[in-house]
Design goal:
The complex is a heterodimer of chains A (179) and B (471). Chain A has 5 helices and 4 strands. With 179 residues, chain A is α+β, with helices and mostly antiparallel strands. Chain A has 2 domains: 7-54 and 128-178, no CATH class; 57-122, no CATH class. A 4-stranded antiparallel β-sheet of chain A has the order 2-3-1-4, covered by helices on one side. The longest helix of chain A has 27 residues, at 57-83. Chain B has one domain (17-160, 177-469): Formate dehydrogenase/DMSO reductase fold. In chain B, helix 4 runs antiparallel to helix 5 (176-209). Chain B starts with 35 loop residues before the first helix and ends with a helix. Classes of the chains: A alpha+beta (179), B mainly alpha (471).
Amino acid sequence: MKAANPLYGLMAEFANERALLEATRRTYAGGYRRLDAYSPFPVEGLAQALGRRRTAVPLIVLIGGLTGGLGGYFLQYYAMAVDYKFNIGGRPLHSWPSFIPITFELTVLCASLSAVIGMLALNRLPEPYHPVFNVPEFARASVDRFFLCIESTDPVFELPETRRFLESLNPIRVMEVSS
Amino acid sequence: MPEGDPKITKGPEADVGYPLTPLGYPSRILGPGETYDTVTERISSIVLRHPPLKLWWVGFAIAFSMLMMFLFAVTWLLYRGIGIWGVNIPVAWGFAIVNFVWWIGIGHAGTFISAILLLVLQKWRTSINRLTEAMTLFAVACAGMFPLLHLGRPWLFYWLLPYPDTMGLWPQFRSPLVWDVFAVSTYFTVSLIFWYVGLLPDLATVRDRAQTWRKKFIYGVLAMGWRGSARHWQRHQSAYLLLAGLATPLVLSVHSVVSLDFSVAIVPGWHSTIFPPYFVAGAIYSGFAMVLNIVIPLRRIYKLESYITLRHLNNMANVMLATGMMVAYGYLMEAFMAWFSGDIYEQYMMVNRAFGPYGWAFWALMLTNVLIPQALWSRRVRTTPILLFLVAFSVNVGMWLERFVIVITSLARDYVPSIWRMYYPTRWDWMTFFGTIGLFLTLLLLFIRFLPMISMSEVRELVTEHEEVEP
């Protein structure tokens, strides 16, 4: 690898999601680990083919929702029963049924916000620059083409070897990605 | 697709030729011959090149003038105060609350389509969810105007929120009006982020297809560097599904909370346990009516018949028919309970509604909201866009009248006849109401012009499934 033109990886282009899924499975089976697949719509099983199982998003949402719910209830309890006691028709200060709607709303609000913020943070978005965009053909990754990229930092990555391997997967073409 | 069938080899515009199910309903949710490329081209070109520009400008000019009228009315309101409206004691909740409930109800169809229909795997939601979510956002924005302006001193709106203020006070958390603040602001926020999460991959498509530097930059910033990585998609789908799951109880709660504003009060005609479900059904009813009123002209102007097919219209009409029957049942039960309660105030409320000074509104309501929608039993009406448009318009008018009847007639004559008083809206009331329609249309037209109004990534999935079913 030359310092003047550092290589981010090699990228193969496919015509449909079945070809990409098959190629990803074979690449993973071939021992490559630092790779990513790109598609214009979610392809079922593709993340699993890359060796990923679960995402942490549901856990983040659960934590966010619990925080919102408990915090919301405590806010109302503290305000109505501790900090500013206000007798309305002799009803109990800790009138929990009337605290339920806001508790529910704040649960949903915090859970939803943590879903989005958690998803973006785990995906490391916003990310203004990424080497894959250096490939002109990659513009079609958001339209109708499917890409598989093996990164040069992969321990098994060897330029002529990996290129031959990618070409054996019957792609439309194989391209070098500069970083 | 099976060869030799002349019906489906026609172009996507040939609605009449669409195949039917055995029961005689249109069955396609995607026009024939659609590929990833045609989907992307058709939808992103509306954003990037925008073909029917003239018509758009005409619409925008009208909408924007109405928005200016709204700003004028609001400016005068802020200068002179609430007295320019027709509200007074006993009718302290005039047009502001009627319009608030009407708008927020309209928003419900968007969340219903995008969240509930996603969870119950209704594929036909795919091509209309983006547009209806946008409608939700704009309708809630319009709705929010009214309670804010009705505060009298809108610049002090933050008093509604819990914050450690120097006066040592808290909002009254036992009041449905405070629940409303939380419900509506949560609803708006969740709708906005749900919409944006769905929009993210499509913004990337627009970014990648944009020709000029400026468009590339703006859509690039909005797309946040989305590149369609499988890892990203996995988290994106997980977050999207969870948001749908969260939005589902939310949409049912929002109008329930709005209805509690009424039913917790002891005013005859308001103090009723049927209100929450009946309001939610009414909200979805009016929301679908508004969706149809928007979608029917749009699919024609932008030639989207291939994505918003007769099956979509038929399905939406069915939802309208079902929720319309629930609303009609609500009216019936209101009348029955008024009689059955044996309470003279409740009984008089019902007589007053139908035969009192606002009787015309009640009968107009029955006509537009109960009688005319019965036309939807006919398949011909459900699959003829122009007829469906007219029925949906009648429902929109009817749902507005429903809120007028509930708010005004109950307040104008409650208990002691000596404080009965009529309510007459002033020109400022009307200008504010039509002004928010201008706000709604302005936002909608800007959305259509600058953002993809159909979810391209989801329609691509639909294309893939179609290929698998009909290779």
